[in-house]
């Protein structure tokens, strides 16, 4: 059972109870320029020096997550693809929570019947795109958005994508042939009629019920995983491997796919840029990712200044580092 703390509770001098911190990447670890600031890196290092192991828990593909994991020198197993893959670098081993090829194939066929949906399949080593990478009008807009607000951010996002080997195929049948192993997840970008994605979700949920899990980290886009798989599931696997209980874990995130992880951890932290649905599940709300909220959280934690259900004031984007 998750421990909930009263508003008056402080962690003064008690940060040592926490042995692991699991960090989301997008909207949490990185800012809108897709940069991990020096302040954030320093705060993470100090947390590690204080005895808190640090890992990443992300919806990203393993290859994209790996570069960020190396950047902050994680010292616990890496959780990626929303908990569908856990990589332990200390033992060079992996744990998979894969979809069956049959279910993935049927989901892809169903999605392909909707106009202008973009479909991707994540396996451990690659990403498979059905149709042109830029076929979906919505997906084009999704890629253009970072360019509009931050050319540097767009460049860094594309650099992260470049780490992932990509196979482009024409249709679902070719995608099935291209899958050398069972898929970790199917990603579906909806079209400009958001009700179509809702209908698609209803259709596959009715058919597969508990055999699949559906989550989201991007507007009008869903990740379809094996039933029961989530970042929380991945975090439970990691905590068991490390011999930790839930009360010894910190989880920090900003989006819908972080909710279960935030609820699972002894100390669940929401970023200031998170929607209210996420903040309401957190024990603590820090500043937003463009105000170095993750760094601020660790600094306050180590200083014994964390008060549960405290919400830090949000500020405009920190221009000090790009």
Automatic annotation (TrEMBL):
Domain of life: Bacteria
SUPFAM superfamilies reported for this sequence: HAD-like
CDD domains in the record: HAD_Pase (cd07516)
A molecular function GO annotation: magnesium ion binding
Any Pfam family: Hydrolase_3
InterPro entries: Cof, HAD-like_sf, HAD-SF_hydro_IIB, HAD_sf
A Gene Ontology term for the protein's cellular component: cytosol
Annotated PANTHER family: HAD SUPERFAMILY HYDROLASE-LIKE, TYPE 3, PHOSPHOSERINE PHOSPHATASE
Protein name: HAD family phosphatase
Organism: Tepidanaerobacter syntrophicus
